[in-house]
Automatic annotation (TrEMBL):
<protein>
    <submittedName>
        <fullName>Helix-hairpin-helix domain-containing protein</fullName>
    </submittedName>
</protein>
<dbReference type="Pfam" id="PF12836">
    <property type="entry name" value="HHH_3"/>
</dbReference>
<feature type="signal peptide">
    <location>
        <begin position="1"/>
        <end position="21"/>
    </location>
</feature>
<keyword id="KW-0732">Signal</keyword>
<feature type="compositionally biased region" description="Basic and acidic residues">
    <location>
        <begin position="101"/>
        <end position="112"/>
    </location>
</feature>
<feature type="region of interest" description="Disordered">
    <location>
        <begin position="88"/>
        <end position="112"/>
    </location>
</feature>
<dbReference type="InterPro" id="IPR051675">
    <property type="entry name" value="Endo/Exo/Phosphatase_dom_1"/>
</dbReference>
Amino acid sequence: MLKKLMLAAATFVAAMGMAFAQVDVNKADQAALDTVKGIGPAKSKAILEERGKGEFKDWADFQKRVKGIGDKNAARLSEAGLQVNGKSLQGAPAKSADGAKVAEAKKDPAKK
């Protein structure tokens, strides 16, 4: 019974580590890109083909070169852990350790 409990705890810790893993688009292979929520085999292949022409300079370069990556999709991918040159998309909502979204700016009281 204790062995099963320890195995379950180890599995949980490993899964949590993978859930918050950051994947750099300029360093990741296809398998790593596929782990990012919102990227499937076709999109990871397109990313790798474009990266073969040269690394992505920043998020704007990434969005310009990879078809189907607009502002909303880029924000979702960044939130899911995708990075370009080690940086998340500026302005994308960050996640706290418990997975909740962290508000980046307070609401403007004048807009009520």
